[in-house]
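Q: Hi! First time asking for a complex rather than a single chain. Here are the components, and I think there are two in total. Is that enough to go on?
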Amino acid sequence: QQQVKQSPQSLIVQKGGISIINCAYENTAFDYFPWYQQFPGKGPALLIAIRPDVSEKKEGRFTISFNKSAKQFSLHIMDSQPGDSATYFCAASPPNFGNEKLTFGTGTRLTIIP
Amino acid sequence: DGGITQSPKYLFRKEGQNVTLSCEQNLNHDAMYWYRQDPGQGLRLIYYSQIVNDFQKGDIAEGYSVSREKKESFPLTVTSAQKNPTAFYLCASSMLAGVVQYFGPGTRLTVT
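A: Yes, that's all I need. Here is the structure of the assembled complex.
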């Protein structure tokens, strides 16, 4: 079964610090790697995504770093704020998505403390 | 106001009863999905549909059934055959050729 392994399961970061969440995948056919953010009692929402033709993508305080050779990608949250406290899911998808599906990691519960 | 609607937000049922969860979208998306979310297990795909009157099983389809009679609607029935139905259920949709999935607010089902 195709897998995406996510770590850590939970993370506590002080306000203003950098939050780092890591994911590793097995299927080299994956070509789309999104991160979803989920607040308690809500559905996940797309945060940022990357394709393997670039090694890094930045949107505001959120950055995805991608290492194709290691089959790993990570989410960095700079200047972490209490409002960033949520569960984050990485995911991966192969090409021709119409016939396939997203494979999600198990999630990381991030808590930003003052 | 475009989006995905799931109802109800909370649902309680007795063991042995079938229950149907509603999912409606007005995004004109072709594809719709049902996921189950349990603590520590991420999102697991139950069923997905790429077109009206057609759907495919996901990773954990046993004990569930779906229908897709209209483009905007994709109801999920949790049958009495589902051994552990208590969970948070999420519906999502996407453009057929797109990869971004948009999620609804979810329904928390409790079966006792």
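A: Chain B has a mean pLDDT of 92. Let me know if you'd like any chain examined more closely.
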